[in-house]
Each structure stands twice: as C-alpha cells, then as structure tokens.
Design a protein that fits this description.
The structure is a single chain. By secondary structure, the protein is mostly helical. Helix content is 78%, strand content 0%. It contains nine helices and no strands. Helix 1 (3-26) packs antiparallel against helix 2, helix 1 (3-26) crosses helix 3 (55-72) and helix 5 (96-117) packs across helix 8. The longest helix has 24 residues, at 3-26. The protein starts with a helix and ends with a helix.
C-alpha cells in the first residue's frame, strides 16, 4: 500500500479512537487533535523507513508517547496528574518506570500542597513521617512532643490535605501514595 493510501485509510479508521485517547490524557481538545495529526504526519514523513504490522497498536502507542511528551513538558495540577495516571494505569499502558515517574510527580504535588496549607508544626510532623520515614516515637523524641501529639498532627494533616486535594484523591489513596514513597 502506498503512503497516502495507508495514512488516509488508517486516519479514517482510527482518528476518533486516537483523538479520544489523546484527549483523556491531555484534557485539551486542540492539543489532542494536534497530537493525532502530528502522529500521522510523522508516519507519512517516515513511511518508507517504517514497518507497521499492527496499525492500531502502533498508532495508539505513538499517541500515548506523544501525549506523555506533551504532559511532561508542562506543569500539571494534582487533578490532571491523577487523571492521566488513572487513564494509563487502568489500561495497563504504563511501564513500571513510568508509574514511578507519575507517583513521584504526584508526591511532589502533595508535598507542595502540604507546605502551602498545613500549619508549620503540622507540616514538620507530616514531613518527618512521610518524607523522612521517621516513626511516631522518633518524631516525638526529635520534636520533644508526645507520641499522641504526633498522631494528632498526622491525623490533622491528612484531614486538611483531603479537603485541599481533588476529590478524586480519597484519604485511603492519599495514605497509600504516601506510605509507598
């Protein structure tokens, strides 16, 4: 099949699927459309060098990587990052390394939000517990407070964060994300 016919046939067959996929990742209509268009242009340009046995799989993979490249190069808020992670992991489209990158970005956003909204002492306890991996006893000794006060600060910080993070990140999900950090 010649280049023009291949591109036109696969464009007609898969454009809707590819567009929806890119949109689910980027949450921007124009960007999703541009990504799909760019994928077809790249294939058209390198058609003679490519061997594409499974067009749909190849196109989905290309759109995924083009979308991830776009996402990587722009700041995301917590909701966008969580949505992208959910879409990709639900469809088993993230490698272990990519999952670690998303988790790291999500942790960075949670940390930034914690710095922004938690009272100073509460943030200090939160940081020691979830980012320095101190035990309640170690935190209590370091800050010269009781373990029950440490527990209260942790509980308070999680409640405050739950209110200040998107509703899609529930308290149990927040605890799981922080524990596996």
């Amino acid at each position: 099949m010649d280049r023009n016919k291949w591109v036109q046939t696969n464009y007609d067959l898969y454009w809707d699927i590819l567009y929806r996929y890119a949109y689910n990742l980027t949450r921007e209509h124009d960007t999703a459309s541009d990504i799909v268009q760019d994928v077809f242009i790249a294939i058209w340009s390198k058609y003679d060098e490519l061997t594409i046995d499974k067009p749909k799989a190849y196109l989905l993979s290309s759109v995924k990587y083009k979308s991830l490249y776009y996402i990587k190069n722009r700041p995301l808020n917590t909701l966008q990052l969580e949505t992208v992670f959910h879409v990709l992991s639900e469809n088993d489209l993230l490698s272990e390394q990519e999952q670690e990158v998303f988790q790291s970005q999500l942790l960075d956003l949670i940390y930034s939000k914690a710095q922004e909204v938690l009272p100073l002492r509460c943030f200090e306890v939160f940081h020691l517990r979830f980012y320095q991996h101190y035990s309640y006893k170690e935190i209590a000794n370091r800050l010269s407070i009781s373990e029950s006060t440490v527990e209260n600060h942790i509980s308070k910080s999680l409640k405050i964060l739950r209110v200040n993070l998107p509703t899609s990140i529930s308290l149990p999900i927040l605890c799981v994300i922080l524990s596996f950090h």
